[in-house]
Amino acid sequence: MLKADNLSCGYGSVEAVHNVSFDVPAGSVFALLGPNGAGKTSTIMAIMGHVDIHGGSIVLDGDDITRRRAIDRVGLGISLVPEGRQLFSDLTVDENLTAGGYARPISRDAAKRDRVFGYFPRLYERRTQLAGSLSGGEQQMLAIGRALMAEPRLLLVDELSLGLMPKMVDLCLDALLQLKREGLTIVLVEQNTARALDVADQVCVLSSGVQVYRGTAAEAKAAGSMFATFLGMD
Ligand code: ATP
């Protein structure tokens, strides 16, 4: 469904990611792993259209989107759950969800909102509460819910587990697995390798902007300490 071919990207003349290639089948979870500064966020920002593409291509369902604007990519069904959530903290849960659906017809809002509340009943309980007053885990649920309001086919999730209690990580990852079962394609950037391997079908490890490992999550788990070497963990 999503194909990156020899993708290089960065910030002006600074190249953060060099010649990365991967293929993400529809309805699967693909995890981008690696240490700080490896280029994981830059890679998903390239898919979203928020960084400079220096070379290579990004193809979504056969359509070359390499040069498409970010707003057009939202229209094509790509939605981002950004690192640090980036919620509108002075707006309520309901208002944040409305903001997420801005690119889609308002007539579908109620049904989509109900769907989000189905994944995250806690958000329903707190729908009139300001986003800034939610716990970290609830904010992450809201960030996922807001992204879902754009009706994505491809969901990009950056550092879901960062700073969250394990129980909240579980709740959010369970929702992503349910979404996958319903056909959504997901690209996950994660520093929590163990949790990422639990939910991913395929993984890719970046180090200093270079792809150093690619395989199925099962292969990565089986590789054990050798896989840890790719992550710079030993
Ligand atoms: P982290 O987990 O720390 O976010 P990451 O793997 O997501 O790491 P990136 O954030 O993609 O890594 O960073 C890759 C490289 O790009 C790093 O060398 C970083 O310093 C650089 N970089 C990131 N954002 C910018 C920017 N706005 N301008 C210039 N360089 C940047």
TrEMBL record:
SMART domains: AAA (SM00382)
Protein name as annotated: Branched-chain amino acid transport system ATP-binding protein
Molecular function GO labels: ATP binding; ATP hydrolysis activity; branched-chain amino acid transmembrane transporter activity
Family the entry assigns: Belongs to the ABC transporter superfamily.
InterPro entries found in the cross-reference section: AAA+_ATPase (IPR003593), ABC_transporter-like_ATP-bd (IPR003439), ABC_transporter-like_CS (IPR017871), BCAA_Transport_ATP-bd_LivF (IPR052156), P-loop_NTPase (IPR027417)
UniProt keywords, alphabetically: Amino-acid transport, ATP-binding, Nucleotide-binding, Transport
Domain ABC transporter: 2-233
Lineage top rank: taxon: Bacteria
SUPFAM superfamilies: P-loop containing nucleoside triphosphate hydrolases
Transport as UniProt keyword: yes
BP GO terms, sorted: L-amino acid transport
Organism: Bradyrhizobium lablabi
Function text: Involved in beta-(1-->2)glucan export. Transmembrane domains (TMD) form a pore in the inner membrane and the ATP-binding domain (NBD) is responsible for energy generation.
